[in-house]
Amino acid sequence: MSTPGPVTAAPTPSPTTAPTAAKTVRLTGNGIDTSAQLVGFGTPYTSARAVFDSALGLPTKDTGEGDSFSDYGTCPGDKLRALEYGDGALVLLFGDVDGPGLTFYQWTLQEQGTVTDVPTASALIGGTTYDFGIGTTVAQLREGVGEKALEVSAGDGPVGPNFSLADQSSGMFGQLTGTSPSDTAILLQAGEACGE
Fold first, then answer.
1. Full-model pTM
2. CA-closest candidate to residue 190, choices 121, 139, 125, 134
3. What does each C-alpha distance from 110 to 21, 44, 191, 194 come to in angstroms?
4. pLDDT-above-90 percentage for the chain
5. CB–CB of 79/102 below 8 Å?
């Protein structure tokens, strides 16, 4: 099919652009910041769920309460409940890590499902917010957050190429395809990690 007039290629979407469905929601090192409030790690499940349903919509998967040893790894505590958004692109974990009730303790953004349906991660560096997500390159991370806030490692053992980011929150961790400037983020995470 031909198009009248000059034809230009569609711009390549920037991996740092907030997704359409969740522009007012940011994944931070302290939890999830919605336009209504920050849902910090340690927030009880019922309180967090009400805010997440309003800000993110209903999850595409809710595991219900189960054992902390699961498909999500060997997670802290004895109980685990996972909410997935964007068919697994964003996973929120709740567990009995801060007492007997389930509390929010981790978010993971991963190269799975529909990444464009979930929010991006957001770092606060010197009063400036830098948004990034799956597909953000090492070069973009270095430029966006600066060398002082970013540590990139080739990894060893079961942990491959990765980065840690120290911003004005509690920081974030991510996995990379490699450590060269053109390599990309394939997993982003904040909160208390689960083991393999």
1. 0.85
2. 121
3. 17, 24, 15, 15
4. 68
5. yes
Pairing mode of beta strands 61-62, 38-40: unpaired
User: What is the number of alpha carbons within 13 Å of residue 155 lying toward its C-beta?
Assistant: 15
Write the pLDDT tens digit of every residue in 115-156. Answer: 999 999 999 888 889 999 999 999 999 999 988 999 999 988
Residue 196 in this model has a pLDDT that exceeds 70: no
Q: Rounded to an integer, what distance in angstroms lies between the CA atom of residue 191 and that of residue 73?
A: 15
Phi/psi for 63 (5° steps) reads: -75, -15
Q: Report which residue type is found at 150.
A: L
Question: What pLDDT does residue 23 have?
Answer: 58
pLDDT (average), residues 76-90: 96
HEC letters along the chain: CCCCCCCCCCCCCCCCCCCHHHCCCEEECCEEECCCCEEECCCEHHHHHHHHHHHHCCCCEECCCEEEEECCEEEEEEEEEEEEECCCCEEEEEECCCCCCCEEEEEEEECCCCHHHCCCEEEEECCEEEEECCCCEHHHHHHHHCCCCEEEECCECCECCEEEECCCCCCEEEEECCCCCCCEEEEEEEECCCEC
Amino acid 24: pLDDT: 86
Cα R_g (the chain), whole angstroms: 17
* Number of residues assigned to the chain: 196
